Known about the structure:
Blueprint: H1 2-43, H2 52-74, E1 81-83, E2 94-96, E3 101-104, H3 110-117, H4 121-130, H5 137-142, H6 149-152, E4 162-164, H7 170-187, H8 192-200, E5 202-203, H9 219-231, H10 236-239, H11 243-246, H12 249-286, H13 291-323, H14 336-357, H15 363-390, H16 396-427, E6 436-437, H17 443-448, E7 490-495, E8 498-502
Parallel strand pairs: 3-4, 4-5, 6-8
Antiparallel strand pairs: 1-2, 2-3, 7-8
Helix pairs in contact: 1-2, 1-12, 1-13, 1-14, 1-16, 2-9, 3-7, 7-8, 12-13, 13-14, 14-15, 15-16
Amino acid sequence: MVGFEEGYKFFTDNSAAIVGAELSNSYVGTVDKEIKKLIDDLNAFEKFKTSPKMLKGDIAEFWHSDTFNIKAALERSDHRAFVDRSHDFASTDVSTNFGHKYGLKFYGDGQASAKAQSISVFQRFKEYQNSGGKDGIEKFLADRGFEDVDTVLNDPIYSGQIRVIPRDQLEEATKWLNRMIQTEQARRPEQVHRYQETLDLLSDRLKDNEGVESIPLSKNEAEELATLAKQGEVNAEDLGLTTEELIKFDHIMQQAFKAGLTAATISVMLKVAPEIYKAISYLIKSGEIDSKQFKKIGFAAVSGGAEGFIRGTVSSALTTCCKAGILGETLKSVDPTVIGVVTVLTMNVVKNAYYVVAGKKTSHQLAGELVRDMYLSTCSLISGSITQAFIEVPILGYLIGSFIGSVVGSFTYDIGQKAIVAFCVDSGFTMFGLVEQDYKLPKNILEEIGVETFDYETFDVDSFEVDTFESETFNPDTFEPDTLDITFLRRGVIGVSKVGYLD
């Protein structure tokens, strides 16, 4: 039971750091995934025969959708945008999982883009006729889902869609729409609605009104991207869209805080569970509630939550910095569980070092606990990696393996530690300084063999004693035969990681 309890304690103390590291690894991985999707979507136009001027609209659709998703990943939002690639009548260019629909127009100037965004149903029918269409207005509308011909002719075909245009055309488009509204109010009031709605919904970006936005794109930038895409030469570094560039200090701290809270919650559950079990067991056996046990539950919750939050926050921040490339390209490939373990070992050493300074522990105890923590961490890492391969649920699979590894490691370490100490007793080996060898003989043995011991001088005040008289008594001499006493010295454990002579 002692080995199990020690293994479980090690697991509960260290699980928070592992959780924090894994959560941040997932966070950076999600951002990186969205960046790669943007690059892949743009480079998918490689070898297209379409000119950059014609292709820029398609490029803009993927740019706005994917950069929105990158920003959503950065802000830990579940909102996502999708390019529909539909060519149906008045179809949406970009849809979302939060209800917004977007239509994009990237024409030669602001007026042309605004005009295309505000086109009416009737205008689109005339375009159909001019291109050779033979259907009448009723059939044209019926085939496209319209029933009442008289009420929809002047409606904008992109009704309800947010109209996205190049950022450098926004001002010109706004002026043109305002001008058309003023003109049509006096001339054709029935036309005002489509211009007003277009103006109200005009934008140069996708946004969810919760802080997530796509990156605005100018017409020339769209054409330049189209040129690179046709050559398959779009890369994240040139666009400034890398985790190193995008993940800022506030993102790191926000993610660390969120991961810390999650880690604290898990740590509290793991700390409290054994105490709750003991309380229930006592209740079943005795038929009453032990108030002291509930105090332990409260203390376990407070201590577990506080320490879990700190460990989870620190490991999360370190993992984000490493995986994002902020600390260099080499550390981007580091295993997050290793970061969690290093965090644990470092914090344990700092805590134990404080105890050494305060006189509550010796340096040998610190070294011994470090070795023990390293051994248990290794067992936890190996076992966690094995179970994660079979249990694909993020974090859970590793935690199960880590628990098993910690418990097994605790049992095997105790056995190994006993074997090591026994070897040091017999051989005098110090195990690289971890086991202290004490060669001093105990004081009682020195006195037994006739060696006088010397203590440091102390100052004693002379005292006065009254002389007393005692009458003489006769004591006959006795004869005792000489005997030979033999004392066998042996070596053994005389302290924590300390070997010396026993009598």
